[in-house]
Design goal:
- The complex is a heterotrimer of chains A (about 350), B (about 170) and C (about 425).
- Chain A has about 350 residues and is of the alpha/beta class.
- Chain A contains 13 helices and 9 strands.
- Chain B is mainly α.
- Chain B has one domain.
- Chain B is about 75% helix and about 0% strand.
- Chain B has 5 helices and no strands.
- The longest helix of chain B has about 40 residues.
- The C terminus of chain B is likely disordered.
- Chain C has one domain.
- Helices cover about 80% and strands about 0% of the residues of chain C.
- Chain C is built from 20 helices and no strands.
- The longest helix of chain C has about 35 residues.
- Chain C starts with a helix and ends with a helix.
- Classes of the chains: A alpha/beta (about 350), B mainly alpha (about 170), C mainly alpha (about 425).
- At the B-C interface, helix 1, helix 2 and helix 3 of B face helix 1, helix 2, helix 3, helix 4 and helix 7 of C.
- Bound molecules: sodium ion (NA) (2 copies).
- One sodium ion (NA) binds next to loops of chain C.
Chain lengths: ~350, ~170, ~425
């Protein structure tokens, strides 16, 4: 049953973490012969994120940490604060801006009140439905350019980290078309764009802090929410919801970002070390996500919640209904229009204009 | 002195009116939102955010009024066993500590206001600059410092100790 | 830096500075002079401590309780409780206990309960030949129950300091714990009154019972609205608090007609100020919690405890003794703010149910409200009874003993307070 699945997953999460550890140990042994330590100045990196052990985010962050520490021979260390220990999501972004946190991994949606351009990441039905194609677009020049807009908020964008496609979960109303949201209040992250998304489909939206979502669903303060499979499953949201709808409407995309002043002041070797570690971390997170997602999906399908995947036609109808909103969001900003057009072009070339 | 005293009284009244109004608005917004949800299946997206910010405003304005009423919670049962002179000196010291703390809070609060003004952070639902919310921190600190100074002057002039820091339980 | 921080805070606390100043000034001084941290972050943390919707239940419950007090709701509950149990052995004393519990289910505050119930019941208790010391002890201890029975400001603060704890869950467990304390105390009153053959009231007639029930009906609905609303999945605790305030206002203004505009304005001002009084503490607590997390102290304590305290039994014993001792000198919210961030990580590592731990903490702190030398309920009871503390001690001791028995039950039989939680989930 459900309980078994949960235990299985926790064990998996731990194993993954252990695997990373083991690899690290092996590499450590190899590195001891190097003189790597001399290349780097002593540095302690404060790194914060929101996810618990067993999540792809956690695994990726650990891989980042291990890489940095072993490559630098221990000269550069990571002081890791998972699980929102450094405050709410908004506060972690702000603390990074202030410079108290050096690197944070936060959902693009939560960053958008700080840097408006970043909201493009969360436009509904923007990204390709194939996850590898999505990664390809993000890693492209158009993706890099959007990431570069973080400068304006005083951040250095290091990369897009994966959280998977978001699903709708609702009570009382199965979702097949945009108008099904009429009369529903959906919980969103603290992002104007996500609020607008539901309002443009005819529904209501209310931001509720991550920590309060389960209770808000249980108490009927909101009728539904959107999150990736692992977040739904690990937080038991499916237990207090009637329907889980695989919609491909958007992705949970994290921005790995550093305080700009801090990052720019690092010597080049350390900057490169961090960039390399970012690549290692994002790879580990992507792998772990791919490994665990099917299992989370199966577990949710086996629960009491009704699981439904929108058909091709239904998704097209949603896609159609979301186009106006894309335009509304960039209205009045040439820069954002350009960034969005760049993404459109890149998406078309990656997907072959499907 | 009378001018000062009257000025303080007016300020005090204004602060009271403001926080009374804020708590009433918060209650009305909360209640309406529940009615909207159950009566009309229509939540606002901003009620919860507005209520939090109103209460934060109440907190930082109320902080000064708590000094005025002498109800800030402190561990001061031993005050009662001190001779009158010592007690008064201690209370003035405590006032000075409060002013130093509120000085820090107000100064760095002001820096935070400027910082968030400069970096354009908006609130997610109301979509206003968050510095509007942060602004109450330096304002409240300044008001509190003012109240403490007036109270200290009153204490010195009147020759008796005021119950500036009466131990108080949760309400 | 952590050492300096603690030394400063302790010094400031000893000067009798307000607790939020002691915590805040200690933190600012150590951050400004001993670290590279931007002090702006401390302001942000204070803001963050307050910027939680769940915490907003606190001002709304304070508001609701003040309206009820000003609107004549508490008197009616008292009359009703007396008609209900007044004729039994120890009836008047039981009335005091029962109506304190009911009033506790209306209000989040303990001294308010002592005053509301005590003003009427203290003379009544004396008239039934209970000693002044017994009567004062009963009042002071019975009032502390409103800390445990939801709504409880202390539980809301605990839920906001330890963000992983849900206020709803704490409230649910609080009902169980409050009932246990109530039952143990009532059993003791019954035994005491039988043994000393205390006089009883004549039994209320059916008509009197009916009349008092009708009069109290609207007031008695408040716990139903609050608890039913939360557990029926209709409101969050914060919304329930706001609804309770609006409801109490409507009853006071239109049914009991005891609320004037002038009155209402005063209630608004007082509620806002009292809320600020507690919320500044919560804000300051957040700085401390954050600095401790940065310094890794909770983890060190957790490691120390898991290495040195092997059994959960022993953990709770140490905790109870420490908290009862703290309770002698400190009040509940201050103790939570300082202690909870330190012990919760350790308890989690030991596999203790956080809700159970929270409730055990609260029961300890509720007892602390009337343990000498410092206890706000003692001071409030003094204003009602005109006894000095030494005269109150024999009575306080009796009820301290009784409630410690209840504490032991709640501590060592977790299901005793958590059974409702098991039932709901
Ligand atoms: Na209560
Ligand atoms: Na005490």
């Amino acid at each position: 049953g459900c309980g078994d699945g949960e235990n299985g997953n926790e064990a998996d999460g731990n194993n993954d973490a252990n695997n990373v550890n083991n690899e690290a140990d092996n590499n450590d042994a190899a590195n001891n012969n190097d003189t790597a330590a001399e290349d780097y100045q002593e540095l302690e990196i404060t790194f914060s994120h929101n996810q618990p052990e067993g999540s792809p985010e956690y695994v990726g962050a650990r891989a980042f940490e291990e890489f940095v520490e072993e490559e630098s021979g221990g000269a550069v260390t990571v002081d890791m604060y998972p699980d929102s220990q450094m405050g709410s999501l908004r506060e972690q972004v702000e603390s990074t801006q202030i410079g108290e946190i050096d690197i944070t991994m936060q959902p693009s949606a939560v960053v958008s009140p700080f840097v408006d351009d970043v909201k493009l990441v969360d436009l509904p039905y923007l990204w390709p439905e194939d996850i590898d194609q999505k990664y390809e677009v993000q890693d492209s020049e158009a993706g890099e350019e959007l990431l570069g807009s973080l400068d304006e908020g005083g951040f250095s964008g290091l990369g897009y980290w994966p959280g998977g496609f978001k699903l709708f979960t609702t009570n009382g109303q199965e979702i097949h078309e945009p108008s099904d949201f009429e009369g529903l209040t959906m919980r969103t992250m603290e992002s104007p764009t996500l609020i607008n998304q539901y309002e443009s489909w005819g529904g209501n939206a209310e931001p509720v802090p991550y920590a309060e979502v389960y209770n808000a669903l249980q108490q009927g303060v909101v009728d539904g929410q959107e999150n990736p499979l692992q977040t739904i499953y690990l937080n038991d949201f499916h237990e207090v919801q009637d329907y889980v709808i695989e919609s491909y409407h958007g992705t949970m995309t994290y921005l790995l970002m550093a305080n700009q002043g801090w990052f720019d002041a690092l010597d080049e070797a350390t900057q490169n070390l961090i960039r390399e570690a970012e690549e290692v971390g994002v790879e580990a997170a992507r792998e772990n996500l791919a490994e665990t997602e099917d299992e989370f999906r199966t577990n949710i399908q086996e629960s009491d919640a009704e699981y439904y995947e929108l058909t091709e036609e239904e998704r097209d109808a949603f896609r159609e209904a979301s186009q106006d909103m894309h335009q509304d969001e960039v209205e009045g900003s040439e820069q954002q229009q350009e960034l969005l057009d760049g993404l459109y072009d890149e998406i078309e070339s990656v997907t072959g204009g499907e | 002195m009378t001018v000062l005293r009257n000025g303080v009284k007016v300020l005090y009244k204004i602060e009271e009116i403001v926080i009374a109004a804020l708590i009433m608005i918060a209650t009305v917004v909360l209640f309406s939102n529940v009615v909207l949800r159950y009566g009309f299946a229509a939540n606002t997206s901003w009620a919860a955010e507005l209520i939090r910010y109103l209460m934060i405003w109440i907190t930082f304005i109320g902080m000064g009024l708590c000094y005025r009423r002498g109800i800030h919670v402190g561990i001061d049962f031993m005050l009662n066993y001190l001779p009158k002179k010592t007690k008064k000196a201690l209370q003035l010291t405590v006032n000075a500590l409060s002013v130093v703390f509120l000085g820090f809070l107000g100064y760095y609060g002001w820096e935070l206001v400027q910082f968030s003004y400069g970096t354009n952070q908006i609130t997610p639902s109301l979509e206003i600059g968050i510095y509007w919310v942060y602004a109450i921190i330096p304002i409240g600190s300044a008001l509190s410092i003012f109240h403490i100074i007036v109270l200290s002057i009153e204490m010195i002039k009147s020759g008796e100790e005021l119950e500036l820091n009466r131990m108080s339980e949760e309400p | 830096m952590t050492t300096l921080l603690f030394i400063l805070i302790i010094i400031f606390l000893f000067t009798s500075a307000p607790i939020f100043v002691a915590l805040g000034l200690g933190s600012f001084l150590s951050v400004v002079f001993m670290s590279d941290t931007d002090p702006m972050i401390l302001v942000q943390r204070m803001f963050g401590g307050l910027d939680q919707f769940a915490l907003m239940a606190l001002p709304f419950f304070i508001f609701a309780a003040n309206i009820m007090e000003g609107g004549g709701l508490s008197d009616r509950i008292l009359r009703w409780a007396r008609a209900l149990v007044g004729h039994m052995a120890g009836g008047v004393a039981m009335t005091t206990q029962v109506s304190s519990m009911f009033f506790g289910a209306l209000s989040g505050s303990s001294p308010a309960t002592v005053i509301a119930i005590g003003k009427i019941m203290y003379p009544e208790l004396l008239r039934r030949e209970y000693s002044p010391s017994f009567s004062a002890g009963l009042l002071a201890s019975a009032g502390s129950i409103s800390l445990i029975i939801p709504p409880s400001i202390t539980l809301i603060v605990l839920g906001s300091v330890i963000t992983t704890l849900s206020v709803s869950d704490l409230f649910t467990a609080g009902i169980g714990a409050g009932l246990i304390i109530g039952l143990v105390t009532i059993a003791y009153i019954y035994w005491f009154s039988k043994k000393h053959n205390m006089p009883r009231d004549t039994k209320a007639t059916k008509r009197e019972l009916f009349a008092s029930t009708r009069s109290a009906f609207w007031a008695l609905l408040i716990p139903v609205i609050i608890l039913g609303g939360i557990y029926g999945g209709i409101f969050t605790p914060t919304e329930a608090a706001g609804i309770a305030a609006v409801y109490a206002l409507a009853i006071s203004a239109f049914v009991y007609r005891e609320m004037s505009w002038q009155n209402f304005y005063r209630v608004c001002v007082d509620s806002a100020i009292t809320s600020a009084q507690v919320l500044v503490l919560v804000a300051a607590a957040q700085i401390l919690g954050w600095l401790l997390t940065r310094g890794g102290l909770p983890q060190q304590i957790a490691t120390f405890m898991t290495e040195n305290i092997e059994s959960v039994l022993l953990f709770f014993l140490v905790l109870n003794v420490a908290l009862l001792f703290m309770g002698m000198f400190m009040e509940g919210i201050a103790a939570i703010i300082i202690v909870a961030p330190l012990i919760f990580p350790a308890a989690m590592q030991m596999g203790i149910d956080p809700v159970h731990l929270g409730i055990v903490m609260i029961v300890n702190l509720a007892i602390g409200m009337y343990t000498p030398p410092f206890g706000i309920n003692i001071f409030v009871t003094q204003t009602i009874s005109d006894l000095d503390m030494v005269e109150m001690i024999p009575g306080l001791r009796k009820f301290l003993f009784v409630q410690v028995i209840a504490l032991l039950i709640i501590t060592y039989i977790p299901a005793s307070s958590l059974f409702l939680l098991y039932l709901f989930n």
